[in-house]
Design a protein that fits this description.
Blueprint: H1 2-40, E1 52-58, E2 61-68, E3 70-72, E4 77-78, E5 85-86, H2 92-104, H3 130-134, H4 143-149, H5 161-170, H6 187-200, H7 204-213, E6 222-223, E7 237-241, E8 245-249, E9 261-263, H8 265-271, H9 273-276, H10 283-289, E10 308-312, E11 315-324, E12 327-334, E13 339-345, H11 355-363, H12 382-386, E14 390-394, E15 400-406, E16 409-412, E17 416-417, E18 419-420, E19 425-427, E20 434-439, E21 444-450, E22 452-459, H13 466-470, E23 474-478, E24 483-490, E25 493-498, E26 502-510, E27 513-516, E28 521-526, E29 532-538, E30 545-550
Helix pairs in contact: 1-11, 2-6, 2-10
Length: 551
C-alpha cells in the first residue's frame, strides 16, 4: 500500500516536472520570439506614435501578443490586444465562409448565375456565377477604380452600396470572359452582400454576426454598416507627413462585404479555428471555403472564397491582407503547423511589419530553403540582344515593360539582368519565373511566366512632335461615367483637365498610346479615315472605359 502511494507520488512529481519544463521552455521560446519581433518593428514607431499589434496563435491558443504605440493619440491610449481595428479586405473571408455555409445548406448554389438573385441585373454575353464573384474572376467593373476615373476620392466622397451596384449595371460589356482571369475586385463582394441579404432575408452584417461571430465567441467584433456608426473600443488610424504632422484618417464609405469589419487580436485568434477544424460548420464547408479557383486554362488562381491559398517556403498557407483609412491588417494561417499570425497596424505603411517574417521566425526548422535552381546560361551575341530592346505593352493595355542593354546584358526595366537560357528564354536570379520572347521580322512578343502567363507586345518607338500631339486635343465624353475629359496641348505635353480630377499628364509610349500620372493608360481610337474619334482607359483593375470625342 505504501509502495503504491509512493509510486503515485513519484508519478505525480514527474508529470508536474514535465509540465513545468514545458512551461519554462515555452516562456524561453516566447521571450526569444519577442526579442526577434521587436527587432522587426519599424523605427518610425515609438511610444508616442501610432503603432501596431502582433498576435501568434498555436494549436488554437493565443500564445503571444504584444502592442506597440498608441491606438488613440488624442487621449494617449495605447494599442492593445483587445482594441478593435478596421480589417479592410481581410473582411472578405467572413463573407466567403458564409457563402460556403449557405451552399452546403442548400440555400444557394455557388455555380448559380448572379441574375437568379438580383432584379434588373445585366446578363452580358457570358453567365457570371456566385463562384466567379467570390474568386475575383467575374469580369465585372471595379467601383473604386471607376470612382477614381470620375475624380472621386473614395475615402472622401460618399460611395454607397447602390452606387457600387450601378457601376456594374451601367457597364456595356464584361471586361473578360468569366473564369479566364483573376483580377482582384472589391465590388463583387458588395454584390455578394446584397445576394446574401436576398437569400436569408436578413441584413448581411447581422447574418454574419449571428451565424459566425457569436458561435465563435468573437463577441467584441463589430461591423460598420453605415458611415459614422459607433464602434466601441476602436482604435483610430493615422498618417504622417512633414508639413501637416499627424492626420487622423477617416472614411466616408461603409459598405460591408468588401471591408468594414472591426476586430481585435483576441477575437481573430478564435477565427483561426475555422481553418484548423470542422467545429463551426463542418468539413464540407471548410473544404469549400478553402478550395482555390482553377482558371479555364487550368491555372491555379491561388484564391478561394475570400482567402488566398499559397505556399510559403514549402508550407501551405492561407492568408489575406487588408487596408482601409490608415489601417493595414495581415492574417496568415499555416495548417500543417496549426499556427496563425496576426499583425494589425493603425499607422499605414509606416507601421508595416511583415507577418510572413514572423512566420519564418516561428517555423524556420519546418520551412524548406531550396537552393536556387542552377541557371544554365548560354551566350547570345550583343547585336541579337539589341534587337529585343524597346517598350513592351501588355495585351490588356494596362501595363508596360522596358528592355534595354545594361553592361553588355539585356535588363528588365533597367534593373534586373536577363540571363539567357536558350535563344528565346531568359531567367532572373532570385526569381523562379521565366521570360520567353517570340521574335520575328514584323512582331515581337514577351511572355512573363510565373504560375500565370502575362503577354506583352513590342511597340515601335514614336518620335512625337508638337503638331502630332495637338491632334489629340478635344473634348471627350464617357456615357458610363457621365463625365467629360478635356484634352489640350500645353508646354510640350498632352494634359487632361476635369474639375474633379484635376490636371492629369499623359506621357506618350507609342503612337496613340499614353501613360498617365494617375496609374491608368489611354489608348486612342481612329475611324476609317484615320481621325481620332475617342479613347479607352485601362488600369490594373479596370479595362476599356470608353470616352467618345465630341466637337
Amino acid at each position: 500500500m505504501i509502495k503504491a502511494m509512493k509510486k503515485r507520488h513519484y508519478l505525480l512529481l514527474a508529470i508536474l516536472l514535465i509540465v513545468s519544463l514545458r512551461t519554462v521552455a515555452q516562456e524561453i521560446q516566447t521571450s526569444q520570439i519577442e526579442a526577434k519581433i521587436n527587432a522587426l518593428v519599424p523605427s518610425q514607431i515609438k511610444d508616442s506614435t501610432p503603432g501596431l499589434v502582433v498576435g501568434i496563435v498555436k494549436d488554437g491558443k493565443l500564445i503571444f501578443t504584444k502592442a506597440y504605440g498608441l491606438g488613440n493619440m488624442a487621449y494617449n491610449i495605447p494599442n492593445d490586444s483587445k482594441m478593435l481595428y478596421n480589417l479592410g479586405s481581410v473582411s472578405k473571408q467572413f463573407l466567403g465562409y458564409a457563402f460556403a455555409m449557405l451552399h452546403t445548406q442548400g440555400k444557394l448554389d455557388l455555380d448559380d448565375s448572379v441574375t437568379m438573385y438580383l432584379d434588373n441585373w445585366p446578363t452580358f454575353n457570358h453567365p457570371v456565377t456566385l463562384r466567379h464573384l467570390l474568386t475575383h474572376t467575374s469580369g465585372y467593373r471595379e467601383a473604386y477604380t471607376m470612382s477614381e476615373l470620375a475624380g472621386r476620392a473614395i475615402d472622401v466622397d460618399r460611395l454607397s452600396r447602390n452606387e457600387c451596384l450601378e457601376v456594374i449595371r451601367n457597364q456595356p460589356k464584361l471586361e473578360f470572359i468569366p473564369g479566364t482571369r483573376h483580377t482582384y475586385n472589391s465590388t463583387t463582394y458588395v454584390v455578394l452582400s446584397e445576394i446574401l441579404e436576398k437569400v436569408t432575408d436578413t441584413p448581411a452584417d447581422e447574418w454574419i454576426e449571428t451565424n459566425i461571430f457569436r458561435p465563435l465567441k468573437m463577441n467584441n467584433t463589430q461591423i460598420e454598416s453605415y458611415v459614422g456608426e459607433l464602434i466601441t473600443n476602436a482604435a483610430e488610424s493615422y498618417s504622417h507627413n512633414p508639413e501637416k504632422g499627424y492626420t487622423n484618417e477617416k472614411s466616408n464609405r461603409a459598405i460591408f462585404g468588401a471591408a468594414d469589419v472591426y476586430s481585435s487580436i483576441e477575437d481573430l485568434a478564435k477565427w483561426f479555428t475555422v481553418f484548423g477544424s470542422d467545429a463551426l460548420a463542418g468539413k464540407e464547408v471548410r473544404n469549400l471555403f478553402l478550395e482555390p479557383f482553377i482558371l479555364e486554362d487550368g491555372t491555379n488562381s491561388e484564391y478561394a472564397l475570400g482567402i488566398r491559398t499559397e505556399t510559403h517556403k514549402g508550407l501551405k498557407v492561407y492568408h489575406h491582407t487588408g487596408g482601409h483609412e490608415s489601417f493595414i491588417s495581415q492574417l496568415r494561417y499555416y495548417p500543417d503547423s496549426d499556427l496563425g499570425i496576426i499583425v494589425l497596424t493603425n499607422f499605414g505603411r509606416n507601421g508595416w511589419l511583415s507577418a510572413s517574417k514572423i512566420a519564418e521566425l516561428m517555423l524556420e526548422s519546418e520551412m524548406t530553403h531550396s537552393p536556387q535552381k542552377e541557371i544554365k546560361q548560354i551566350s547570345i551575341k550583343k547585336n541579337k540582344l539589341e534587337q529585343l530592346e524597346g517598350i513592351y505593352v501588355a495585351t490588356t493595355l494596362n501595363g508596360t515593360l522596358n528592355l534595354s542593354m545594361v553592361d553588355e546584358s539585356l535588363a528588365l526595366n533597367g534593373r534586373n539582368t536577363l540571363i539567357p537560357t536558350s535563344d528565346n528564354t531568359f531567367r532572373i536570379r532570385g526569381w523562379s519565373g521565366e521570360i520567353e520572347i517570340e521574335h520575328s521580322s514584323d512582331s515581337t512578343f514577351l511572355h512573363v511566366i510565373d504560375g500565370q502567363k502575362a503577354t506583352y507586345f513590342k511597340v515601335k518607338k514614336w518620335s512625337e512632335d508638337a503638331e502630332s500631339l495637338k491632334l489629340y486635343e478635344g473634348h471627350y465624353w464617357s456615357n458610363e461615367l457621365e463625365i467629360a475629359y478635356n484634352l489640350h496641348f500645353e508646354k510640350g505635353e498632352i494634359i487632361i483637365q476635369n474639375r474633379w480630377l484635376g490636371i492629369v499628364k499623359l506621357q506618350p509610349i507609342s503612337k496613340d498610346f499614353f501613360q498617365s500620372n494617375k496609374d491608368f493608360y489611354v489608348k486612342f481610337n481612329r475611324n476609317k479615315e484615320g481621325k481620332i474619334d475617342g479613347f479607352n482607359t485601362n488600369s490594373e483593375r479596370t479595362l476599356d472605359v470608353f470616352f467618345k470625342r465630341i466637337e
